[in-house]
Amino acid sequence: MRAMVLLSALVCLGALAVARAQQAGTVVEEASPMIPLSNCTLTGGCVPQAAAVTLDANWRWVHEKTGYDNCFTDGDWNPKFCPDGESCAATCAIEGVDGPGYQKVYGVRTIETGVELEFVAQSGNVGSRLYLTDGEDSYVMFRLKNREFSFEVDVSTLACGMNGALYFVEMDEQGGLGTGNNAAGAKYGTGYCDAQCPHDVKWQNGVANVDGQHGMCCFEMDIWEANRMATV
Question: Among all residues, which ones are annotated catalytic?
Answer without folding.
Answer: 220, 225
